[in-house]
Amino acid sequence: MEEVGTGLLDRLDAMQRVAASAPGGPMLIVAGPGTGKTRTLTHRIAYLCAELGVFPEQCLAITFTRRAAEELRQRLDGLLGPVAEDITVSTFHALGLAILRDNAAAVGLSPEFRIAEEAERLAVAAEVSGLGEAASERDVRRALADVAGSDAYGKALRARDLVDLDELVSLPVSLLTTSPSLADEYRARWRWIFVDEYQDVDPVQYALLRLLCPPDGNLYAIGDPDQAIYSFRGAEVSFFLRFASDFTDARMVRLTRNYRSSAPILATACQAIAPTTLVPGRRLDPARVDPEAPQVVLYSAPSVADEADFVVRTIDELVGGVSHRSLDSGRVDSRSTPDGGLSFSDIAVLYRTDAQAAAIVDALSRAGIPVQKRSHDRLLDRPGVAALAREVRFATGLSGSLAARVRLVGQVLAARCDQPALDDTDHGLRPEDVHMAVDLLTPLALRCGDDLERFLRELATGAEVDALDPRADRVALLTLHAAKGLEFPVVFLVGCEDGLLPLRHPGAELSDDDIAEERRLFFVGLTRAQDRLYLSHTRKRFRHGSEREMAPSPFLSSIDPGLLERRGGDAPRKPRDRQLRLL
Ligand code: ATP
Ligand code: MG
């Protein structure tokens, strides 16, 4: 535990200290990547509790991923010690779930209600739409898309003591709207509310916040409009932009000093976002000055295989000693390298779409480099995870730790998938799906100790990236969405091509807003890097059923060529007219 007292804010710079020690009332912190938003948030909470006599149980900190919540909780433990346990740190989903648990009867549920599994959602949709048993799975899926969110669907779920994952925030919103006295109780309980990544709030989450926090309440919202990347899930950056009109006498603090990235990386990122920045007068000043800092590398690859090879070769060079391993000795622990080079956990490979991961995973695995691959998708959306979770829940007779049970049940399930004729309940499930599920659920199980209920709850509301273990000595393979909020000494951003960044599906025209959001995603990717950043693009790629010529991403042309060290192939061609129009 750190010393509490005047020293508490010593590790913040002047502006961060202003932001952390401000009096109550609505407050917006507008700050670019790596400026210490998350650091300021934790110190703010610690300062309130340790210096101003705020009770930890009156504090509610909301983040977007379970992983981020976990990190916040650890940092608060470090600053405040055991009293930090009384602070509620939660994702929106988990918060909604907690409110529902407290008020189950009021929404027609028993205290033991569960979140519906995919099979249950489909069964309920079929029932509500009057589909008979003979209906095909496609038909049923279409019915689900039609009825999800309707009153009839909700009623049928409730009759089975279930809620849909998508209702975890909307149900509490309805409950608190129809019961103002209940809303008052929550307002009295959480007098101090903090939201990280506020730029990604969606209308339902926003409605919940409004119910939990009066217009002049102590809402501390932190974010960066230029990192708003979730509009495809309904997030609206406009909530951030109109904070001052939503909340009474809202104050605003800006943080502009970037502590994360080297000066060349920061300059590259700033140029990349400049054409569509949502922050007037945006500034990001490097706190780090190192004249030796390496330039950002732009690698042009003839093919996807060559791009993957470039990643492997470069990792080999960076993680000194790896090249001496013997391939048949299997995986290597890079931390054991004698020359103190980088370790695998310092490295991330980022990409726009999950489909791009396969070539990279293949190449890294062949080279004996351990990986952990995570997307931003929900855990339950993976078929292997749903099946494994079901088996773990019913395998109560097994002894041993929860993590051991996950592994054991996984082995049995994988073996069964190899003999589908014996069991058709997990039809279509492949052993590798199960292995992936074990890989995802083991860190979760370890975190939950032996608390099966907590494990199931986290699993039901979690995303794949929640299962990222920052301590594991493996290279992280992440979608750009999953990488938000994280930082790594070395970052590869692969597939910087028109059609992937910005992502374009065949026949679909992109609006200016779509392109701006893709550019923000590019910006998020660039700003994850601390010391070394490698961008790459391939000139040919298999997409939409055939091999295509790929042009470099138009976003690259916003970057001063002098900032980039070009490697491999010819310099990227000038963007064609069509791409220029997209800018
Ligand atoms: P993002 O927008 O990507 O979420 P952020 O603004 O939340 O970024 P943090 O993750 O809080 O940034 O901080 C980025 C890095 O800078 C961290 O490694 C953090 O420890 C470091 N840092 C922040 N503030 C300071 C400071 N005053 N002195 C030294 N290091 C700092
Ligand atoms: Mg952050």
TrEMBL record:
It catalyses: Couples ATP hydrolysis with the unwinding of duplex DNA by translocating in the 3'-5' direction; ATP + H2O = ADP + phosphate + H(+). One of its GO terms (biological process) is recombinational repair. Residues 263-531 form the UvrD-like helicase C-terminal domain. One of its GO terms (molecular function) is 3'-5' DNA helicase activity. ATP binds at A31, G32, P33, G34, T35, G36, K37, T38. Residues 10-262 form the UvrD-like helicase ATP-binding domain. Residues 545-583 are annotated as: Disordered. Its EC number is 5.6.2.4. It comes from the Bacteria. The keyword Nucleotide-binding applies. Residues 563-583 have a biased composition (Basic and acidic residues). The keyword Thylakoid does not apply. Keywords: ATP-binding, Helicase, Hydrolase, Isomerase, Nucleotide-binding. This is DNA 3'-5' helicase.
